[in-house]
Write a structure and sequence with these properties.
alpha+beta; 5-stranded antiparallel sheet; metal ion binding
Length: 687
């Protein structure tokens, strides 16, 4: 093509010929630069001027009429398409659109990292149902928000810097979503009614059904995970739940199968749950017991670490083992021999026994059994010392063996083996009350021994042990008792957590200091100076000055809270028909009072209790009661504690009769004989 002169720069290098029909924008720029051109006149441009005009077109935004027309047509087309698309889409009210970005977590809005995954469909459906937010396919989320491909129900949606338009879905997308929701409903209808695979189960649900928190259950599941597998009938996690639900609720295997919606008839449900129960039981016996129960799982130095301030102060820093038997009720048997062997003449029921060996802080060292109900604690202990070689080899001479009075026949055998038995002194026949020294020594033993009773109470919170046990389950009873004991050791630990604090050290030292304290009131009563009725005058507690004390002061006075817990029910029974707490004051001195407290064990027995107090010095200086342990100076009996607690604390804090106990008592119809006369005077005679 021959070179022509450029219309703009007059250079003879023009190679482009333009017309107003195709490039009217060039003519517009020429007009802006002062050129005068006719619309039918063609122009020629060199490359340099062409690129310059293109740049100016972009900078100034000059457009041709054709482009304006095309853009207008395109805009109209786009608007119509958007309108058509909007008409095709359906807006879901109250449902937010999460956005379709893949750069941030749809839940917490964190930037994409290696811990994120594409959000699975079940989790997206959970997001829609639980949080009312629609997330399209492909969005990403952190793994920590998911559990078993489901969205955790307590997860918090971060709404900061998030556009939240209402969700608009095309009919096909909405139809697929509707089908997915129907599938979710169908899955829910066939899912277990109680499903421990469901992340929405709360901590309270776990405690109610299994007796363990969600975190504790998770620890157990991780322990058995590699040793138990899921099957077509149940998940491994649900199998563990079945085991603990059986122990916690004592429901039948068939009832548990119904809870988990196991397919098949009732017999198949029973078999599936029974097999799951046995599988979990065997795994826990193999993997849990060796680490958390039995003589071999603790060294002697570790056992001494379980001593409390009280056991160290009273008996020295030695291995201290508390022995106590507990029982589990069974049914009658068609075997006559077995029926006779399990019948307890004391309880008048069929039962089997276990012997628990606990350390001073309530940690279970071992539990042995079962034994027949006809055996007493002493005979069972004697059998253990002769047959359990591992236990006898672990123990050493000088170890402390704490027992109750039911072990009196084995105390000598313990001494012969070189151990130091500690038992409350047995009240000799014909003697009505322990001496002050005997009662004080018994209190030291009781202060250490109570933890084994608390351990048994904690064990029997699983109703399998507190209800009557079916005879066909007796072969599994030993494993079940040991599994619960081991799990309590593992996940809950000792009953006394802070067992060696400075506060406990002070209390233990104070108890030993009071061992030799003389009981002044006991001497006055024995000499007859306080026992005659003529020396007392009745007075209403409202008109009576008594030192006010706080609960912490009372706990220190009684060396614990047990007596305080007993005081409320004693006080309720002591109130007269007018709601007054009747007391008597000595005529010789206003600082000694007397009350008659009804025994909680016998209708015909009431005890006089004397309290000496001071309004200037120590609030309570002495106390004495006619009950078996009422002469002690280390702590106080419940009768003495009732008087002190009510007068020094309860009456100043609006003490009221328990409505719950009142309703229970009133729900039973009481029959009075003609000889019965209601006692409204509260003038008791000591017996």
């Amino acid at each position: 093509m021959p070179k022509k002169q450029c219309t703009r720069c007059k250079n003879w290098k023009a190679c482009r010929k333009l017309t107003a029909k195709t490039h009217d924008w060039c003519y517009s720029l020429f007009y802006l630069e002062g050129f005068s051109l006719n619309a039918d006149q063609s122009i020629c441009l060199c490359n340099r001027c062409w690129f310059y005009l293109c740049y100016e077109k972009t900078r100034t935004g000059v457009q041709s009429e054709n482009e304006n027309t095309n853009d207008s047509n395109a805009m109209d087309t786009s608007v119509h398409e958007d309108q058509d698309q909007d008409q095709d889409q359906l807006t879901i009210e109250n449902i937010l659109f999460s956005g379709s970005s893949h750069k941030k977590c749809v839940v917490c809005r964190d930037e994409v990292n290696t811990t994120m995954i594409t959000m699975p469909k079940p989790a997206r459906l959970d997001l829609l149902v639980l949080k009312r937010m629609y997330a399209p396919h492909g969005v990403r989320c952190c793994r920590k928000h998911l559990w078993n491909n489901r969205l955790l129900p307590d997860v918090k949606i971060n709404m900061d810097n998030r556009q939240t338009p209402m969700a608009k879905l095309e009919p096909t997308v909405l139809l697929n979503l509707f089908n997915d929701l129907l599938g979710l409903l169908q899955e829910a209808s066939t899912a277990p009614r109680l499903d421990f695979m469901d992340p929405s189960m709360s901590n309270e649900d776990y405690l109610t059904w299994t007796g363990w928190t969600k975190e504790q259950f998770e620890h157990m599941f991780m322990l058995i995970l590699s040793h138990i597998r899921s099957s077509s009938n149940r998940e491994a996690r649900n199998a563990l739940a079945m085991f603990w639900i059986k122990l916690k609720t004592n429901l039948s295997f068939r009832q548990i199968g119904s809870l988990f919606n196991i397919s098949g008839d009732y017999e198949n449900r029973r078999k599936v749950v029974s097999r799951s129960f046995d599988s979990i039981r065997q795994v826990l016996v193999d993997k849990l017991l060796p680490k958390h129960l039995g003589i071999g799982h603790l060294s002697r130095s570790e056992a001494i670490d379980h001593n409390t301030s009280f056991s160290n102060e009273f008996f020295g820093k030695k291995v201290t083992i508390i022995w106590d038997g507990t029982y589990f009720y069974t049914g009658k048997s068609s075997s006559h021999e077995f029926q006779r062997s399990t019948y307890s003449g004391q309880k008048k029921r069929h039962l089997v026994k276990f012997m628990s060996l606990c350390l001073a802080d309530g940690y279970c060292l071992d539990t042995l059994g079962p034994f027949f109900g006809t055996q007493n604690d002493a005979s069972i202990t004697n059998h253990i010392t002769k047959t359990k070689n591992a236990l006898m080899e672990w123990c050493e001479p000088g170890d402390i063996m704490i027992v109750d009075r039911g072990f009196r026949d084995i105390v000598e055998a313990f001494s012969d083996l070189g151990y130091e038995p500690k038992m409350p002194i047995y009240l000799p026949k014909g003697q009505k009350q322990h001496t002050t020294n005997e009662a004080n020594e018994a209190q030291l033993v009781t202060k250490v021994r109570w933890t084994v009773e608390s351990y048994h109470a904690r064990l029997k919170k699983w109703r399998f042990f507190s209800d009557r046990i079916e005879n066909q389950l007796l072969p599994k009873l030993q494993d079940c008792v040991r599994i619960v004991s081991a799990t309590l050791n593992w996940l809950r630990g000792s009953i006394i957590k802070d067992h060696n604090t400075n506060h406990m050290d002070r209390l233990a030292k104070l108890m030993t200091d009071r061992l030799a304290k003389h009981n002044y009131l006991a001497t006055l009563v024995e000499q007859g100076k306080l026992s005659t009725k003529q020396r007392w005058k009745k007075i209403n507690e409202i008109d009576f000055d008594f030192p006010e004390m706080e609960l912490e002061d009372l706990r220190q006075l009684f060396f614990g809270s047990y007596q305080i817990k007993q005081s409320q029910t004693y006080a309720e029974e002591h109130l007269d028909v007018n709601g007054d707490f009747a007391i008597q004051v000595s005529k010789e001195t206003d600082e000694i009072i007397r009350c008659a407290i009804q025994s909680r064990h016998s209708n015909s027995t009431r005890y006089y209790a004397w309290i000496q107090f001071s309004l200037t010095g120590d609030p309570i200086t002495s106390w004495y009661c006619q009950c078996k342990s009422g002469a002690r100076t280390v702590g106080a009996c419940a009768h003495e504690a009732t008087i002190i607690w009510f007068l020094s604390y309860a009456r100043h804090h609006d003490f009221q009769y328990s409505n719950g106990r009142r309703r229970i008592q009133q729900s039973i119809e009481k029959i009075l004989s003609d000889e019965d006369e209601p006692d409204e005077s509260n003038e008791f005679s000591a017996t």
